[in-house]
Amino acid sequence: CKFHPGMRGTITVEGVVGGVAPVETRFEQPLVVPATRRGADIRLVMRRAKVRALADGPRTTMWTYDGTYPGPTIRRRGGRGTEVTVVNRLPRGAGAMSTHLHGDHHAPADDGQPTTHLIRRGDERTYRYPLLVDGRPEPGSFFWYHDHRMDRTARNNWRGLQGMFIVTDPPTRGLRLPTGRRDVPLMVSERSFTPGNQLTDPFADGPDMTGHHGEMSWTGEHAPPDDATVGDTVLVNGRHAPYLEVSATRHRLRLLNSSPFSSYNFTLSDGRPFLQIGTGSGLLPRAVVRSSVLLGPSQRADVVVDFSGASGQRLVLASVPAAPGTTGDDARETAVMEFRVGAPAPDASRLPSRLPSPRLVAPVPAQVSRTWTFGLEETARHGSAWTIDGRAFDPRRVDHRVRLGTVERWRLRNDSEVTHYVHIHAQQWRTLLRDGERPPPWERGLEDTWRLEPGEEVEVAARFTDYTGPFMIHCHMLDHEDHGMMARFDVVP
Ligand code: C2O
Ligand code: CU
Q1: Is the C-beta atom of 251 inside 6 A of ligand 1?
Q2: Which end of the chain is more exposed for a tag (fewer CB within 10 A), N or C?
Q3: Ligand 2 centroid – CA 480 distance (Å)
């Protein structure tokens, strides 16, 4: 186990990793918080739009939800059913799309299946999200929505089809988290730009993506194992190197890494810690003090930062790789954004040491266990492919059948030589073991995506509730997902 020893206490401080931000970055643009939608009936039009990503020069043309990148942030209380209608008005050549609400629990017909339920150009589709789990309101969560079109997910997300979805916490006595302007969702995602400020096209010479069932193929540099869509410019809520003016009080930051491929090891330039209160899928049982927070593609962390005592300072949120040979040494090294700390202000927030976290499934009655092995194989059909259990994705093939109502224990094993971030649709999971040991304190809440280093094994458990039909498990490094590392499991009555 590569985590620091002595991590078993209730509140633990990691050793400080790395140093200060590697900065010559100038923070010239104010952070933009995407518009919020709160209704039960939401309409999002996918269309091309010009957005302000870089501080100087022309705006950037992106594929957007409703004209902005990120799209509007949807905020809904758990249990309040929500319908989201997505309309495809993208240009010719973009093809059919599929919108997935990452992390949420809903029926397969509304799951943004990557292969079926496509929204063709000119068409629309309504997704129904009851925000219920087994009849109870879904816990406060930080989800996000993004395109999930088979074979083209990396390209479509690169072009911009991403937005955030917050399930707000039910009112809880004793817990007063920072709210309003002190509750800031931060979508961190990297891109590369041409001298004219347009997105580069890393896919130009890439896969020949026919999009037909099981007919994927890919060639050249963008074939496994050399497929890695990385950018050189980090955007936060769609803008490069933004700053945010904050009062010298506690702020809740909801961090999301929506990059196609890279991971980030977030730190603050003065060594100020993050108090992590949740994952993307609900509160942790106890807050954890962390000097850095590592997030791979699609992972989220709900943290509180206390800016008191920093009035007049400018603090940089940066990603700093961990020490060589330790977890997170492959993270990006980059400045991300700046906090300009103003005067102190009244602060009514309160954080009890025990948090009202969602109930976890009891692992003991796990009725079924199964293993999923993530690897790289030569396949007869596609040549070199990222695989699960030795096979590249085929949407017509049911890889596992899971019985509704059953508690399952899944072993996720990385047999390849690179790190993967494994995501499971359908349910939220409890992490039982990481490499045979109790997981670190920040992995003791619900999760839907796990980091798996080469040779690592993570065991997770969930009860399958409410819905039957096909769901997906895949690597969330989008090149790996597009190039075979996805499987289908069906929940059956
Ligand atoms: Cu965020 Cu299957 O996806
Ligand atoms: Cu992967």
Answers
A1: no
A2: C
A3: 5
Strand duo 334-341 + 314-319: pairing? antiparallel
**Interval 270-317: pLDDT, tens:** 999 999 999 999 999 999 999 999 999 999 999 999 999 999 999 999
DSSP assignment of 324-375: TTSTTTTS--EEEEEEEE--------B--SB--PPP---STT--EEEEEEEE
Q: Which domains does the chain have, with CATH numbers?
A: 29-168 (2.60.40.420), 180-341 (2.60.40.420), 368-492 (2.60.40.420)
Evaluate: CB of 148 within 6 angstroms of ligand 1: yes
Q: What angle do CA 280, 36, 345 make, to 5 degrees?
A: 80
- CA of 225 from ligand 1 middle (Å) equals 21
Tell me how far the alpha carbon of residue 429 lies from the centroid of ligand 1, in angstroms.
Answer: 15
182 lines ligand 1 (CB under 6 A): no
Interface pTM (ipTM) of the complex? 0.98
Output the pTM of the full model: 0.93
